[in-house]
Design brief:
Distance between the termini: 28 Å
Structural class: alpha/beta
CATH architecture of the largest domain: Alpha-Beta Complex
Largest sheet: 7 strands, mixed
Number of strands: 15
Radius of gyration: 20 Å
CATH superfamily of the largest domain: Medium-chain alcohol dehydrogenases, catalytic domain
Bound molecules: NADP nicotinamide-adenine-dinucleotide phosphate
Order of helices and strands: EEEHEEEEHEHEHEEHEHEHHEHE
Helix content: 25-40%
Number of helices: 9
CATH class of the largest domain: Alpha Beta
Strand content: 25-35%
Shape: globular
Length: 333
């Protein structure tokens, strides 16, 4: 049987370190082997997608390539008894969009054990407003709670607060009754963060201590860090006894120049978040929260909806740290 033709963003390597992006016609015959062929309706733009789209070999080794770590859509063909044609599904993370053709195209083919049935009470569109960034935010909040953080314990700091992970984290924490302090480099977007439910907005400069002191006055009961580097170091030093910090990103820096005192004198806990390899049982628990008790009423306020043609300008914005909220890719446009 001949394959179906479809449109996709294709990144090609032209000469050394020159990566060119264009919308091309592809065939499902070119997709990798797999159990489930999905007709993708929505995807989203994550920081990692922008790295893949601009030739970061730590994310994507071989080009030409179609990025997109997120996809939601309809099962078009299935060799798996778990999934039937016509079913609505989500696929995100694992190797999707890294070295497996991703959600910036109208079709993906993936192993059945990467596929999640769309939870009740969530549309395909809503699932991709969350996408991997929203999933990572919810996973981070779940880890804070699992380690004993609760609204009565005190303030929660969210760094990179206007970004994809940050903005969803602010929104979920506020919905759960936490006092959220949002740290941002975009102080002109303070009202956006207050509207999401932040109690206070602080600047990136205020979030970075340059005194070199081994510990700072304890303020945070919990921290959702999305940026790494000195902002994460400062947050750890300013976390209250028995407080919990989650760490998922490195847009500021991958370095962590720190000493052991916050851990041995205050018992603070630093929890790593890895959504890509998150096991399926935990993945389902997080999606259950996103579709259930934690579902945001204001999801549309976070979303900037774009077509394949409009991805390019948004890739450039996210690389410069200028993106706000979530970029939803509508492949039906
Ligand atoms: N571990 C995982 O499983 C996982 C999953 C998803 C994402 N991530 C990582 O999490 C991070 C955030 O992802 P995202 O999709 O939310 O990206 P994003 O939408 O670009 O958000 C990142 C935000 O960080 C802030 N920022 C940017 N550059 C900065 C700098 N040099 N110094 C300090 N802050 C800076 C900006 O927010 P403000 O202007 O508001 O400060 C920016 O909007 C990325 O590193 C991504 O790779 C990891």
């Amino acid at each position: 049987m001949s394959g179906k033709n479809f449109k996709a963003l294709v990144v090609e390597e032209e000469g050394e370190k020159n990566f060119v992006r264009s919308i091309k016609d592809r065939s499902t015959d070119e997709l990798p082997e797999g159990d489930v062929l999905v007709n993708v309706r929505y995807s989203s733009l994550n920081y990692k997608d922008a790295l893949s789209a601009t030739g970061n070999k730590g994310v994507t080794r071989n080009f030409p390539h179609t990025p997109g770590v997120d996809a939601s859509g309809i099962v078009a063909e299935s060799n798996s008894p778990e999934f039937s044609t016509g079913e609505e599904v989500i696929v995100h993370a694992y190797d999707l969009g890294c070295n497996t053709s991703g959600g910036f195209g109208e079709y993906i083919r993936v192993p059945a054990d990467w596929v999640i049935k769309l939870p009740a009470n969530l549309s395909l569109r809503e699932s991709m407003i969350y996408g991997t960034a929203g999933f990572t935010a919810a996973y981070s909040v779940l880890e804070l709670e699992r380690h004993g953080v609760a609204p009565a314990k005190g303030e929660i700091l969210v760094t990179g607060a206007t970004g994809g992970v940050g903005s969803v984290a602010v929104s979920i924490l506020a919905k759960l009754g936490y006092d959220v302090v949002a740290s941002t480099g975009k102080t002109d977007q303070a009202q956006f963060l207050l509207d999401l439910g932040a109690k206070e907005v602080i600047s990136r400069d205020e979030s970075r201590d340059e005194s070199g002191r081994p510990m700072l006055k304890g303020r945070w009961a919990g921290v959702v860090d999305t940026v790494g580097g000195e902002i994460l170091v400062t947050a750890i030093k300013a976390t209250k006894p028995m407080g919990v910090i989650t760490c998922c990103g490195n847009v500021a820096s991958a370095d962590l120049p720190l000493n052991v005192y916050p851990f041995i004198l205050r018992g603070v806990k630093l929890i790593g978040i890895d959504s890509q390899n998150c096991p399926m049982d935990l993945r389902l628990e997080v999606w259950g929260k996103l579709a259930g008790d934690w579902k945001l009423g204001s999801l549309d306020d976070l979303a900037n909806e774009v077509s394949l043609d409009e991805l390019e300008e948004n890739i450039q914005l996210i690389l410069q740290g200028k993106q706000k909220g979530r970029v939803l890719l509508n492949l039906t446009k």
